[in-house]
Automatic annotation (TrEMBL):
The keyword Protein biosynthesis does not apply. It comes from Sneathiella sedimenti. Its cofactor is pyridoxal 5'-phosphate. This is Aminotransferase class V-fold PLP-dependent enzyme. Keywords: Aminotransferase, Pyridoxal phosphate, Transferase. It comes from the Bacteria. Belongs to the class-V pyridoxal-phosphate-dependent aminotransferase family. GO terms for molecular function: transaminase activity. InterPro entries: Aminotrans_V_dom, Aminotrans_V_PyrdxlP_BS, PyrdxlP-dep_Trfase, PyrdxlP-dep_Trfase_major, PyrdxlP-dep_Trfase_small.
């Protein structure tokens, strides 16, 4: 299908007065998502929270089915959580590590994940090894394969890092994980909704996602995928009466599905909004939306490279919708502030986000412009115009 950009922008009120290039932070919600969230809040106001949840049960449950359709899994392999970090932490801390175990990860790994690795290393004595990048900047899969031994207990990788444009080779990493029968955790916080993601093709055992980024869902939503035949190898870091049933005075029984990683309380309106957002994307087609946003980013890279003083800092054999750059004399924060005065949203990414990668490249901070399918070529030209003012 051909995307009707005028219609999509009309359904995205945030595009009317602002150029939003911070989609890797939080994308603009489409009107149907906002209306779904608002309608449920109105229902809670009118009849009460529990009663509203009961009445909206079908819409709530649809979210599991929509997500399962999008990433190609069974609905019983999905847990709805507050955000990608919660999902990722539930999976990671569900692993059982011992002294001498090894965790293999990427050089461009996100700070939140690395901090968790460091915490577990401090607690248990595991060793964290960063797999070298190849000449393009992505994880070197041959190096990964050569680093495998019987002490490796987890391969954990960020699919699309927070900066640099990079898309790590998730499928190739999955083949190596399967060959050696090593658990594989994929942080897909910025890939699901941006590019097609098929957990069966990737071969990951666990995958975490947020709702607010490329899925265009509400903040405070996310999900965790755990492959059904891997689920019993994890021990949820905490359980409550939603994830398990108290079956005797000294016993309990966990749920038979991935919802054992959920807890009792939900932002029901947010979950419903997330389901509407996923259905909105399914109706458009992830292949079409991904192709457009990646093309916009590629165009931006070409035009940015022609701006005096600007250096594009993207890496990777395959690049997505995130574009990073810096300036010879202006700081990233100064550029962000300058663009904000002209109603252009970008963000700043720096050492604290991907320290290993940026220290290696000698970069302290970059401007991040992240594109979505509702952005336009005219918006790119406006960005370039404002940067030329520098």
């Amino acid at each position: 299908m051909t995307l009707d950009i005028d219609r999509l922008r009309a359904e995205t009120p945030g595009t009317r007065n602002r150029i939003h290039l911070n989609n890797a932070g939080a994308a603009l919600m489409p009107a149907p998502v906002y209306e779904a969230v608002k309608d449920h809040f109105d229902l809670e106001l009118a009849i009460g929270g529990y009663e509203a949840h009961a009445r909206a049960r079908a819409a709530f449950e649809r979210t599991y089915d929509a997500i399962a359709e999008l990433i190609n899994c069974d609905r019983r392999e999905i847990a709805l959580v507050e955000n990608a970090t919660v999902g990722w932490q539930m999976a990671f801390h569900g692993m059982q590590f011992e002294p001498g175990d090894r965790i293999l990860t990427a050089e461009a790994e996100y700070a939140a994940n690395v901090i968790a690795y460091l915490q577990v290393a401090k607690q248990t004595g595991v060793k964290i090894d960063f797999v070298p990048s190849d000449e393009s900047g992505q994880m070197d899969v041959a190096a990964l394969d050569s680093m495998i031994d019987d002490r490796v207990k987890l391969i954990s990788v960020t699919h699309v890092p927070t900066n640099g444009g990079l898309i790590n080779p998730a499928v190739e990493i999955g083949r190596i994980a399967r060959k050696h029968d090593i658990p594989y955790l994929l942080d897909a916080c910025q890939s699901v909704g941006q590019i097609p993601v098929d957990v069966a093709k990737i071969g990951c055992d666990m995958l975490s996602v947020t709702g607010r980024k490329y899925l265009r869902g509400p903040r405070g939503t996310g999900f965790l995928f755990v492959r059904s035949d891997f689920m019993d190898k994890l021990e949820p870091p905490f359980l409550d009466m939603h994830g398990a049933e108290w079956t005797s005075m000294d016993g309990y029984e966990m749920r038979p599905d991935t919802r054992r990683f959920e807890n009792w309380e939900f932002n029901v309106s947010g979950v419903i909004g997330l389901g509407v957002a996923v259905d909105y994307l399914l109706d458009l087609g992830i292949e079409e939306t991904s192709a457009r946003l990646c093309e916009l980013a590629a165009t931006a890279r070409e035009k940015l490279a022609q701006v005096p003083g600007i250096s594009v800092r993207d890496i990777g054999a395959r690049k997505g919708g995130i574009v990073t750059f810096d300036h010879a004399s202006k700081s990233a924060e100064e550029i962000k502030a300058h663009l904000a005065t002209h109603n252009i949203n970008v963000s700043v990414t720096g050492l604290s986000s991907t320290r290993f990668d940026l220290e290696k490249r000698g970069i302290e901070a970059m401007v991040r412009a992240s594109f979505h399918y509702y952005n336009t070529e005219e918006e790119i030209d406006r960005l370039i115009e404002m940067l030329n003012e520098l």
